[in-house]
Amino acid sequence: MTAALFSLTFAVAAPFWALMILLPRWSWTARIIASPLIVLPVVVIYALLVLPAFGDVLPAVASPTLEGVRDLLGTSNGAAAGWAHMIAFDLFVGRWAWLDSRERGVPALAMAPVLLLTILLGPLGLAAYLAVRTRSRRRRPPPARSA
After folding, report:
1. Average pLDDT for residues 5-33, to the nearest whole number?
2. In the chain, is it the N or the C terminus that has fewer CB atoms within a 10 Å radius of its CB?
3. CA 96 to chain centroid
C-alpha cells in the first residue's frame, strides 16, 4: 500500500501544476487554483501514511535529532510520508506564487520555469519567485466608476 500511495502522491498534484504551467490563462485554471483545497488529496495521502505510525512520528518531530529524522525517513513509510509532505507544501507554495504573480502582472512565461523549479526543488522555486516578485509591482484596481 505504501508504494501505491507514494506513486499516487504526485499523480494527484500533477494536474494542478499542469494547469498553472500549461494553461495559465484558461478561465477554469483561475477558478480551480483559487481554492486552497487543491492540496487536500495529498494531505489525505499524508494522513494515511502518518497516522498509523503516529507513535513513531511524534517523538521524531517533537524533539528532532538528525539520527531520529534519518531513521524515520529511512523507512518506506517514512520516505513516502516525507514525499507527500513535500508535495503538499510545494503545491501550496506554487499555488500562492501563481496567484500572487497574477495580481502582480508577472508574465506566465516567466512563471513557468519558477513553477517547474518549485516542483523539483521547492525552496529554490520559492526563492526564485521571491526574486521575480520583487521586480513586479502589484496591479492597482481600476478606478471606481461614478454613477
Report:
1. 97
2. C
3. 8
